[in-house]
Amino acid sequence: MSVVAVNQVGYLLSGPKRATLATAAVEPLTWRLADDRGRIVADGTTAPHGTDISSGQNVHTIDFSTHQRPGTGFTLTADGATSHPFRIGTGLYRPLLTDAMRFFYCQRSGIEIREDLRPGYGRPAGHLGDRDVPCAPDAGDHRLDVRGGWYDAGDQGKYVVNGGITVWQLLHAFEHRGGLDQLPLDLPESGNGVPDLLNEVRWELDFLLRMRAPSGLVHHKMHDLEWTGLPTLPHLDPQPRVLRPVSTAATLNLAAVAAQASRIYRKYDADYADRLLAAARDAFTAAGTHPIRYAPVADTIGGGPYDDDDVGDEFYWAAVELFLTTGEPEYADAVTASPLHTADVFGTYAFDWAATAAAARLALALTPNELPGLDDVRASVVAGADRYLAIQRAHPYAVAYAPPGNQWHWGSNSMVLNNLVVLAVAYDLTGEARYRDGVLEGLDYILGRNALNLSYVTGHGTDYAENQHSRWYAHQLDPSLPHPPKGTLAGGPNSGLQDEVAQARLAGRVGQFCYVDDIRSWSTNELTINWNAPLVWIAAFVTELG
């Protein structure tokens, strides 16, 4: 059975417009584009590609980029198959940006989620006891007030390294993408004279500041003593909460994002900016003077380990952000002395919570500064973008991601999006349309132009993921509970198939087919704050274009 996979949200008038046809046919086929009244407004022939290794399908490309008339309800037909409907026009992605960013309010811990602000998602404050949390026996003998912050993912833990990269990416978008200072998010703080995005991010920043131990190092995470079952609403969680040990990675995450935040918040709250910068300096010093502390890989009870046995990239990242904020020689020297400063940091995927060197490189490339050798820094970003663009152009589904051995990673959708961030920054640096078009076509994959013919963003498209792994967005298990809110990104194909549902239903599947929209498939279908952050970044970029 043939399938025509399209971006189910739509295509910008001035951007590329392509779809992928999965078919048994090997010769070119006729395609037709119809409007909402069924009238044929364009036609042509497909371009066969042969077998796509990421899906095992025989595929063709449909290119209808020459059609530049706006409208709704367009469909593509080829080989007897008709696509989901889509729009062509301007302003298509503003709702995606708003929803992707509004997601974070529903992830807040320690505060009531107001029904009037998020109809259908109101709930009492969760984990008010986080105001007084003890250390686990191997983490110290003190107690901390670690209230607030965002629940990390489908569980109710709070993790500094995941919170750190999420804060960094949202603030990087705010600093370098237009219009985010005017984005309305309907928050309790709205109208206080501070942009809503910064109001939301501060909820997490304040939590990160509270995770500092008396030593000056930062606790890696805090979560339940034991895993809770599905579903469990935050305010009904019966488990005791504990602080897990400090880590160098967590300490440097605080140094990086507190330094970055201090320059961004200074316009709105100088005292807070001073406090952030002092915390960043202290954390960087503490990380450099204490012995390296790694998060233990076996720390998997009640929360994920988020283990990382290489913190050279975190040292580089923190030094970069401190230099960009202060301009001080001490931090400039730390940047240029790092082996990562001249290394190729753009691998299979650009960056995530455990690999932050490319994030540092992007910050250096875009944020005004006087570091010697900036031309080389920017050239390295463009070279990384060229690599991702070449991968995308060779891919029948236009995916800028090609994992070794076709073994797709956990959270692959975020990796696709973060590679698109590199393309977008290359466009910022060069103005070359090929990078802009690469971002647009790469987003097509997330929104439905994929082997599953599925939008991975809840509420966006015709057929979309809506049963992401979560303890409180659990409609699949309890109809009285909601699905995840609009704008929630699913993790996406994961060849590892670590959970039992994936193992039972997806064994033997290839690449793109290693995904199931089931709440119990935590390895393919979880939601996380650090996966929604690149969705916000890319949605902000394409909203500017549109």
Automatic annotation (TrEMBL):
Cellulase Ig-like domain sequence ranges: 3-83
Record domain Glycoside hydrolase family: where: 93-538
Superkingdom of origin organism: Bacteria
SUPFAM superfamilies assigned: E set domains, Six-hairpin glycosidases
Protein species of origin: Actinoplanes sichuanensis
Lipid biosynthesis recorded as keyword: no
E.C. code: 3.2.1.4
Catalytic reactions on record: Endohydrolysis of (1->4)-beta-D-glucosidic linkages in cellulose, lichenin and cereal beta-D-glucans
GO molecular function: hydrolase activity
Coiled coil ranges: none
Listed PANTHER family: ENDO-1,4-BETA-GLUCANASE (PTHR22298)
Keywords: Carbohydrate metabolism, Cellulose degradation, Glycosidase, Hydrolase, Polysaccharide degradation
Family: Belongs to the glycosyl hydrolase 9 (cellulase E) family.
Protein name: Endoglucanase
